[in-house]
Amino acid sequence: MADVNRGNRPLSPHLQVYRPQLTSMSSIMVRLTGIALLGAAVFVVWWLLAAATSQAAFGGIDAFLRSWFGDLIMFGATWAVFYHVLGRLRHVLWDFGYCLEVETSERLAIGMFGLATLLALICAVAL
Amino acid sequence: MQFLTDRKRAQGLGSGRGGTHHHWQMMVTSMLLVVLGPLFVITFGLGLGGTYEEVLAYFARPLPALITILTLAVGIYHVMQETLVAVEDYVPGIAGKITMVVVTAFSYALIAAGIFAVARIAL
């Protein structure tokens, strides 16, 4: 029975017509950093595989990752790791039933941006 | 409307299948990565920057080798699941299915390559 009512179903607002908010933006960033980290993992594995292969293979990718552009990628990846970890931790808290209020979520979003930036800077200076 | 079949009506709107399992896996890997993520950033940061010999000696030690292998396995699996959901959301039809196969194959290949590399350095 294909009794479809397409007239008065509630529609979820689409990204393009939705006003940007702290909650939506911080959530989108979690997904983006997750996908970006799949790309960053390629460099890590490439570097390890080159180290396992030969000194010549290692030299090229090692020089690239230690250049200013490689530093930029590594800093971005470090920030993404911390942001994504904190963002996913927020998901775990939500799923256990905590911090579901909009204001709390927004405070956590600011905390995620701030703490990820702070931790990435500390790692960049220390390592 | 009378030409709409039951299958057509249901397709693409999601069903139970692996959803609960997928969600629980995301919860578990998220919690594991709260520990592994920062540990790996520090481990890899300490490893990067040495000479060829230093890097080989460093990743031959138990702790850097284990942290690297565990994070690559759990971390890449986690972002693979993350990417698959994004593909489900934004790439419709057969293109989406093929993209999901490619993402899955690529992710597992990356995990295998990473573990192989560390094992070869460490053993």
UniProtKB/TrEMBL annotation, chain B:
Keywords: Heme, Iron, Membrane, Metal-binding, Transmembrane, Transmembrane helix. It is found in: Membrane. GO terms for cellular component: membrane. Its cofactor is heme. The keyword Iron applies. GO terms for molecular function: metal ion binding. InterPro entries: SQR/QFR_C/D, SuccDH_FuR_B_TM-su. Pfam families: Sdh_cyt. The keyword Signal does not apply. The chain crosses the membrane at residues 24-48, 55-78, 98-119. Membrane-anchoring subunit of succinate dehydrogenase (SDH). This is Succinate dehydrogenase hydrophobic membrane anchor protein. It comes from Candidatus Rhodobacter oscarellae.
